[in-house]
């Protein structure tokens, strides 16, 4: 399993390292599925943290 994870990491590393970070709070017209509940909860938490200052 470790070897497989390492292989996947190495395949994705270049893509991840070359991406520019964006503020996820600016996402518009995004379609989330039921399986994306964790993303919805994270964004709700993030918005509450930023609104508190």
Q: What string, H for helix and E for strand, traces the elements in order? A: HH
Give a short account of the largest sheet: none
Question: What radius of gyration results from the CA coordinates?
Answer: 15 Å
Low-confidence runs of at least 5 consecutive residues? none
> How many helical elements?
2
N/C terminus separation = 42 Å
The share of residues in extended strands comes to: under 5%
Tally the beta strands. 0
- Helix proportion: 55-70%
Oligomer: single chain
Structural class: mainly alpha
Q: Quick one: overall form? A: elongated
Give descriptors for this structure.
single chain; mainly alpha; 0% strand; elongated
Structure notes:
The structure is a single chain. By secondary structure, the chain is mainly alpha-helical. The chain has a domain at 28-53. It is 60% helix and 0% strand. It is built from two helices and no strands. The protein has helices at 2-18, 37-51. The mean pLDDT is 89.
Brief overview, please?
The protein is mostly helical. It contains two helices and no strands. It has helices at 2-18, 37-51.
List the helices and strands and how they pair.
Layout: H1 2-18, H2 37-51
């Amino acid at each position: 399993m470790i070897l497989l994870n390492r292989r996947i990491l190495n395949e994705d590393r270049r893509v991840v390292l070359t991406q520019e970070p964006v503020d996820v709070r600016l996402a518009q017209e995004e379609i989330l599925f039921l399986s994306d509940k964790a993303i919805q909860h994270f964004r709700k938490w993030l918005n509450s943290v930023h609104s508190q200052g």
